[in-house]
């Protein structure tokens, strides 16, 4: 093997890593802006250079061989190192610039992140922001997302991150509704009330509460179900029942007295409550555009709960 052969193979290694990340030759070709046949030739050339089979090709999907799995981890590290080198110029640039792509859950995106975007765009005119507002778990690497905001007490391994805030969930209702139907004194009392639920999963109909070592799970029902917190908030303000809401969504109405907290001495546990983590691929040299956006989010989330 010549001394230059590993260097000559770097483009083929990068294409091989993209094929594995994308899941197919055609998907990788679309991302790279070349033809599937060109992608296939580069992977075949790398296999020929290494004299090993990297991928088992079937009509439906690609499968890594043992050698391919070992090669992929090293090729992926090489691509990450190349990104870090490119990021050096942005890291040391005086003016942050470029596109920041970020995913987040719907309620958090609409009510907490979106209001922070306008002042950020005014402050950094060379930086663009794209928000992917979805409750599904986004693969940062596969979908080329720079950062993700996830509400979890167990952030996934393999990503760098920092906590932004602890988000709570509460149940509340209008004073008029409670005057007519009464104030629940225990979670089991909710069985006799109209409850406004999320409805995305069967578990959303079973509300879990904890208090000083005691727990209670209650099957609730109501005439109105909506998978958007602002809609459930409006329903509660319209006296339709007791709503399950993120604390940040209900905060203003609670402070005004338009809503009243129900069972305030109990903690309402949901999969949408926990620590809001800002997650991103590990990179020692974060581009300036990401550093200023992260700092802006940390400041903007101060005091959120």
Word description of this protein:
β9 and β10 form a beta hairpin. The model has no long low-confidence stretch (mean pLDDT 87). It is elongated and about 80 Å long. It has 305 residues and is an alpha+beta fold. It starts with a helix and ends in a 5-residue tail after the last helix. The protein contains ten helices and 14 strands. Helix content is 40%, strand content 23%. A five-stranded mixed sheet has the order 4-3-5-14-6, with helices on one face. Strands 8-11-7-12 form a four-stranded mixed sheet. Strands 10-9-13 form a three-stranded antiparallel sheet, with no helix packed on it. α2 packs across α5, α3 crosses α4 and α6 crosses α10.
Q: Which features does this protein show?
A:
alpha+beta, 305 residues, four-stranded mixed beta sheet, single chain, five-stranded mixed beta sheet
Instruction: Please give the number of β-strands.
Output: 14
Query: Cα-atom Rg, whole angstroms?
Result: 25 Å
The helix/strand series, from N terminus to C terminus, equals: HHHHEEHEHEEEEHEEEHEHEEEH
How many helices? 10
For the largest sheet, list the strands in their spatial order: 4-3-5-14-6
- How much helical structure, as a percent, in the residues? 40-55%
**What is the average of the pLDDT values?**
87
Q: Termini distance?
A: 60 Å
Largest sheet: 5 strands, mixed
Low-confidence stretches: none
Strand content: 15-25%
The structure class reads alpha+beta
Q: What coarse outline follows from CA principal-axis ratios? A: elongated
